[in-house]
Amino acid sequence: MLTDKLELIGKTVASNTDIIGYDRVLFARPELQAMLLKKFPSEKIHLAKKIVTLDKDMDGVTITFDDNTTACSDILVGADGAQSAVRQHLYKTLEKEVLLPKSDTKPMSKGYISLVGMSNKLDPVKYPGVLEKEYEGYCIVGDKDTPYTASYAVRVHVS
């Protein structure tokens, strides 16, 4: 964590595994959709539909959408966001079966806000690491009278 004068005032001392129980993987949702569309038949992928019910049995899973259509499959990939209907159903099922990990009963907040933006090309001498494939940027902490600009922003996935 840096001040608005780029002075180091703090750093992360715990890994994601220590905090949330597993490592994180960051990627853009369109990348996941492109991968799924490439690997599975298009008729097996349902986009822009809201799941109303989800039923599983020994033969697989059946989902009903809000337009009353259904889909059956051996597996269900819930790529529907942080407040996922698929995740919520899975949590309820695991909770009933007393299989839900205690860490998953806590609110989904790590106590910080992520601000994502874009900037002009950054000088690697001034911002070491920006040439790496994956790079996490700086957190700028300024006072109420000291504005900072997007020139401090760093992309997470630099290709």
TrEMBL record:
GO terms for biological process: secondary metabolite biosynthetic process. Keywords: FAD, Flavoprotein, Oxidoreductase. The keyword Flavoprotein applies. The keyword Transit peptide does not apply. It comes from the Eukaryota. GO terms for molecular function: oxidoreductase activity. PANTHER family: FAD-BINDING DOMAIN-CONTAINING PROTEIN-RELATED, HYDROXYLASE, PUTATIVE (AFU_ORTHOLOGUE AFUA_3G01460)-RELATED. This is FAD-binding domain-containing protein. It comes from Linnemannia elongata AG-77.
